[in-house]
Design brief:
The complex is a heterodimer of chains A (about 350) and B (about 500). Chain A is mainly alpha-helical and about 350 residues long. Chain A is built from 14 helices and no strands.
Chain lengths: ~350, ~500
């Protein structure tokens, strides 16, 4: 009888990379749905365009490298969906294609593909378009406009390589009350107006496609953590350290600095903490390391928001955390059984 | 009793219900037995019989060689028909030196010497009986038991831990022996404790075996043997892990349990010790679990050492369908075999015939750094990092990360969602490391020999030169003397 010889163990768990990734995609569907409900066709087109670009880029580069297709590991899908959720809902589609291409080609394939990338590919894509298209990425549109399911926001369909049209007039036509065109973070930073926690939790505020409802993101993340498809320690560490830092600033000057709840619920912190910082390939693997990594991201996010030129700091905080990951892993090796100190014996 | 937490660990599907309710049954006497000379850690035994010799059941047929070795006895009465090679119980299927015994069907014992009160024997005598019976650790490590007793007695042991963990899925041989032979096991435990003068005796049994726990508790009543239920978790039955869970102490990395005053033996070994000391019966049979999805009727059998595995598989009806993989031992640490003529040896705890669905699909994909392996490792290693170093042939880097502390339990490979054969990497690296160390020793020995030779040659040269100089000096002195004498003679003549 001929049999393939294998080393033990001869029994394996039912976990697989595809299964983990598929569940992450599944858990993102409610967030996508909420975004589409809020922003209509433009949000849907954005999601589909970015995801399709990511998948096409992945396949193209597989072929260029003469490798079998890696589309079925679902990781390019996650990158696409997450990237789309971090972009403004009316982001021009041709720019979204650029973001998707950069995310996969430069953020992932260049390093050697899944597992070898140093930075979160979705955030690489977003960082690129933030630098390349500073106006488009800060142009916000009102949610729940009447015609959102029948027509696109004009900027969505900007012709390739063209600047998006000015949509101030279009926004006025939508006649949505009290639309300021600024995110809650920007309003706090430049006008010192703090949005209500209720609005932030439920998501009826101006923001990127997927950053709106904190509670929805938390619920989806809780599902992933409960099924052990995500390390719950990372979001807990990020949120706790951000809240603690914000709380200390508020103690120092309550008139200038907002409450920790505002810091937690506004901007992309929730999406970043739950879905971006937890990217397995780019976060530490040691039990102690994940706490340090999460804490660094939380503190840096608040610092950028309070003292940086940008209104939002989650993206750069996570990218910085990604860069620190190898060092964190190196210095937080677990204690080996039968030895005294952390890390290596002797 | 307060238990301590196991670091890491996994919960593989137990599958013990397949065979847990099957009473131990004796396999009918096989026609031919193939008894390998090496069934233990250490040097192979040396045969003391010849082809054609008639032997009785339990008669010594090969003696232990050197410090670490174990004797081997005839599993039944019959005739020695061959001293030669037979396929080994190892994935390689390579031939190993084996004694072939043809049974005469009478199964006549060589001798039985009954000791009425074995506990009255001196500790040294108990160890001597264990050595004479060729007992090795039956949990799978197959370290010669008598040696372990002697080493422990000389270094001093506080705690004797009896391992009834049986954390490997499928296996129920220890479960059954504890349920059915608890009284004998407890006597064996007391004999072991007596041999090493242990003060505390703990029997650790996983709580998925409540009947075994009850049986052992009942048998242990009125003795100092304490039966402890431990949570079911793999690898609870690993020596270092069971010590840590029961005592809270960790065996130092690279050290042995004796370093912290602990001795660990398997419960089945205790039974063998009792049989050897009380009845003078050597280790010639053991309990083996036959299980797996491809086996028609899983069971627990008492099998003579040397019985070909095919007879075990056939005994209860054979296969339901062709097995995708055959495994010796449990699925987590057991070894694959392909030839069913392989004999049962002292370390054979189970024979598994697994279906493809039980093994699971295992095509490796790239590591996504999910860190599941880090959290599963009971030793606190970073399996993914070690594998990355080994992949690039950086063994030094892997050793720095703790490669030598890896117990090869397979928890990391079991949980890996990318199905990376991590244990394979580590086994390969350990083998390579051992080979490197051997070749280093060899090089050093060669260097020493070469240096000694050079020194010897130089010395011979020097001695030769010295001798030549001496001879020359003597000759010159002689010539001078002759000249002087001649001159003198001439002078006198003048």
């Amino acid at each position: 009888m001929s049999m393939e010889l294998r080393t033990s163990p001869h029994q394996i768990s039912d976990r697989s990379v595809e299964r983990i990734m598929k569940h992450v995609v599944l858990s993102l569907l409610p967030v996508c749905g909420f975004s589409i409900w809020q922003y209509g066709l433009s949000a849907l087109a954005l999601l589909l365009t970015v995801t399709a670009t990511c998948l096409a880029t992945e396949r193209l580069l597989n072929r260029a490298a003469s490798q079998p297709s890696t589309l079925n590991d679902w990781s390019a899908t996650i990158t696409g969906v997450l990237l789309a959720l971090t972009l403004p809902p009316a982001f021009p589609l041709w720019m979204a294609v650029v973001a998707g291409f950069v995310a996969i080609a430069i953020g992932k394939a260049l390093f050697g593909g899944l597992g070898f990338n140093v930075f979160n590919p979705a955030l690489i894509g977003r960082a690129f378009v933030q630098a390349a298209f500073p106006v488009a990425i800060t142009t916000w549109v009102p949610a729940f406009s009447a015609q959102r399911f029948s027509e696109f926001v004009p900027t969505t369909l900007t012709a390739p390589l063209m600047m998006p049209p000015d949509i101030v007039e279009w926004i006025k036509l939508q006649a949505v009350d009290a639309f300021t065109g600024a995110t809650p973070l920007a309003r706090w930073k430049f006008e010192n107006v703090v949005a209500s926690s209720y609005d932030l939790l439920t998501g009826v505020v101006t923001a990127s496609a997927g950053e709106t409802s904190a509670i929805l993101i938390l619920l989806c993340g809780a599902y992933l953590a409960a099924r052990k498809f995500m390390d719950w320690r990372i979001p807990v560490a990020v949120l706790a350290s951000a809240a603690l830092t914000a709380w200390m600033f508020q103690l120092y000057d309550p008139t200038h600095y907002p409450a920790p709840s505002f810091v937690l619920l506004s901007g992309g912190l929730m999406l970043g903490a739950v879905y971006m910082a937890t990217d397995m390939a780019t976060s530490p693997v040691t039990p102690l390391g994940v706490w340090i990594y999460g804490a660094v991201i939380g503190v840096v996010t608040v610092m950028i928001r309070y003292f940086g030129g940008l209104t939002e700091g989650v993206m750069y905080a996570i990218l910085l955390g990604n860069a620190l990951t190898p060092f964190i892993d190196l210095y937080t090796q677990p204690r080996v059984f039968g030895t005294r100190q952390q890390g290596k014996k002797k | 009793m307060k238990l301590f937490d196991l670091k890491g660990g996994v919960h593989p599907e137990g599958k013990k219900d397949l065979s847990a309710e099957r009473h131990i049954r004796a396999l009918p006497l096989p026609k031919k037995l193939y008894v390998p000379l090496q069934q233990h850690i250490g040097a192979p035994a040396t045969p003391i019989v010849n082809v054609g010799n008639k032997v009785l059941k339990g008669q010594l047929i090969a003696t232990a060689q050197g410090a670490v070795s174990s004797s081997i006895h005839a599993p039944t009465s019959g005739t020695i028909t061959a001293l030669g090679d037979h396929v080994a119980p190892h994935p390689s299927g390579l031939p190993v030196p084996t004694i072939t015994l043809e049974s005469d069907g009478e199964d006549r014992w060589f001798m039985t010497r009954i000791v009425d009160d074995p506990l009255a024997l001196a500790p040294e005598e108990v160890a001597a009986c264990v050595a004479a019976a060729g007992i090795v650790g039956l949990g799978g490590a197959t370290f010669p038991s008598a040696l372990k007793l002697n080493l422990s007695r000389s270094s001093g042991v506080q705690t004797l831990i009896m391992n009834g963990g049986e954390c490997e899925p499928y296996l129920t041989c220890d479960d059954r022996i504890m349920r059915e032979r608890a009284v004998e096991i407890v006597e064996g435990i007391r004999l072991i404790a007596h041999a090493v003068a242990a003060k505390e005796i703990l029997v650790g049994i996983e709580d998925n075996k409540p009947e075994a726990i009850a049986a052992m508790q009942e048998a242990a009543q009125g003795t100092t043997v304490k039966v402890v239920a431990m949570p079911s978790m793999y690898p609870m039955g690993s020596e270092k892990q069971i010590i840590q869970v029961l005592t809270g102490n960790e065996v130092p990395a690279g050290g042995r349990p004796a370093d912290i005053g602990v001795l660990v033996h398997n419960v089945a070994t205790a039974f063998a010790v009792q049989q050897a000391v009380r009845y003078g019966k050597p280790l010639i049979s053991r309990i083996v679990t036959i299980s797996g999805g491809a086996i028609l009727q899983p069971c627990n059998l008492e099998v003579l050492i040397g019985t070909p595995l095919q007879e075990l598989i056939d005994f209860n009806g054979g296969y339901t369908q062709p097995a995708a993989r055959l495994v010796l031992g449990g699925p987590m640490m057991g070894q694959q075999f392909t030839n069913t003529n392989v004999p049962v040896v002292k370390g054979t705890s189970g024979v598994l015939a697994l279906l493809a669905s039980e093994i699971g699909h295992a095509e490796a994909s790239p590591c996504i750094r999910c860190s599941t392996c880090v959290r599963a490792c009971p030793v606190g290693l970073l399996p993914l990092e070690m594998a990355a170093h080994i992949r690039t042939a950086d063994l030094t880097g892997a050793v720095a990360l703790g490669l030598k502390d890896c117990i090869a339990c397979g928890s990391c490979s079991y949980v890996c969602p990318a199905h990376i054969p991590l244990v394979h990497f580590f086994n390969y690296a350990k083998g390579d490391l051992a080979a490197q160390e051997r070749s280093k020793l060899k090089q050093e020995a060669t260097k020493k020999l070469a240096e000694a030779r050079n020194e010897r040659l130089a010395r011979i040269e020097r001695e030769r030169a010295e001798a030549a100089a001496k001879r020359k000096a003597a000759r010159e002195a002689k010539e001078r003397a002759a000249k002087e004498a001649a001159a003198k003679a001439a002078e006198e003549a003048v």
